[in-house]
Specification:
mainly beta, 0% helix, five-stranded antiparallel beta sheet
């Protein structure tokens, strides 16, 4: 299972911030794993069809990675 909840809030017409909770949960294994995370980030629209995003995050259990960060670009065509 990989549930996710995201709250995106526009700050300006082109800039948004977000907070996300997501996780990865196994079911039926000999040892099930629970890996929930919390991740804040930003999105900036360079043009109407191009957006960049940055985020960082923390694992909320000992089984989850303690920290991550990433950046990405989205192009709509």
């Amino acid at each position: 299972w990989s549930p996710s909840v995201v709250l995106r809030v526009p700050v300006t017409e082109r800039f948004e911030v977000h907070a996300e909770w997501f996780g990865s949960y196994t079911q039926g294994l000999v040892v099930d794993r629970q890996q929930p995370f919390f991740s804040p980030g930003t999105h900036f629209s360079i043009t109407r069809n191009v957006e960049i995003g940055l985020r960082i995050g923390w694992g909320l259990t000992a089984q989850a990675a303690p920290f991550f960060s990433d950046a990405g670009i989205a192009i709509q065509y």
